[in-house]
């Protein structure tokens, strides 16, 4: 009986061997560390620079006086997104010297007027309380004197009362009543004939023959000091 001949192996074909697919491990990547947070000083400085640079206008004007042969120079610049304005004024003579410099910083509620030659500053502030009361305060730094003023709107349009007093106080406050055609002021003044004098001044405005007229009246009331002191 014949036996089958052994098959010759085919070396061109790769022998099949069932095996599980190999899974390569994921590549390990090293993440860079996060950048450090900016400091508060840098944040505030960047905001300050942005406020100074954004929407800032710079203006300069020059006027020449032929009689005195001097130049009047004015420089202004808006700061902090139009919240404040810086103003500088001075005079240039024929020798190109800077005379009478004045520096001002103004805003809606506060202003500073500085005189470098006198080393003096005038501080002003104003604010409203409600819709009828208006307050303003002025202070001279060098003289250590100031003034406080209050203005009240009356219910009728065009009418109001203003009270103002010096600081430190030197007497009774000055009172002014305003109305559409004028005003009346009552204040205490010094007079050579009487130690204390009450002065009343009135101003009337009107039109006569299609023209503007202005009339003023002043009366003095002499009051003895013992009557005032009680």
UniProtKB/TrEMBL annotation:
Organism for this UniProt entry: Hibiscus sabdariffa (roselle)
InterPro entries documented for this protein: OEP37-like (IPR038951)
Name under which the protein is recorded: Uncharacterized protein
Tree of life domain: Eukaryota
Biased composition (Pro residues): 23-37
Residue segments, region Disordered: 1-37
């Amino acid at each position: 009986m014949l036996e089958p001949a052994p098959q010759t192996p085919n070396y061109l074909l790769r022998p099949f061997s069932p095996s599980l697919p190999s899974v390569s491990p994921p590549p390990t990547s090293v993440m860079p560390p996060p950048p450090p947070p900016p400091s508060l000083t840098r944040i505030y400085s960047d905001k300050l620079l942005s406020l100074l640079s954004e929407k800032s206008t710079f203006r300069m004007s020059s006027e020449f006086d032929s009689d005195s042969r001097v130049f009047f120079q004015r420089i202004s610049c808006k700061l902090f997104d139009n919240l404040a304005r810086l103003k500088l004024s001075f005079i240039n003579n024929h020798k190109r010297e800077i005379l009478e410099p004045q520096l001002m910083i103004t805003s809606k509620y506060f202003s500073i007027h500085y005189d470098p030659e006198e080393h003096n500053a005038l501080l002003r502030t104003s604010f409203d309380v409600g819709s009828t009361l208006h307050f303003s305060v002025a202070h001279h730094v060098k003289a250590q004197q100031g003034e406080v003023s209050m203005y009240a709107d009356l219910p009728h349009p065009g009418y109001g009362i203003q009270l103002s007093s010096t600081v430190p106080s030197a007497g009774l406050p000055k009172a002014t009543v305003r109305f559409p055609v004028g005003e009346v002021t009552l204040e205490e003044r010094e007079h050579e004939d009487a130690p204390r004098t009450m002065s009343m001044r009135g101003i009337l405005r009107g039109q006569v023959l299609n023209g503007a007229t202005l009339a003023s009246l002043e009366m003095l009331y002499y009051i003895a000091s013992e009557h005032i002191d009680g």
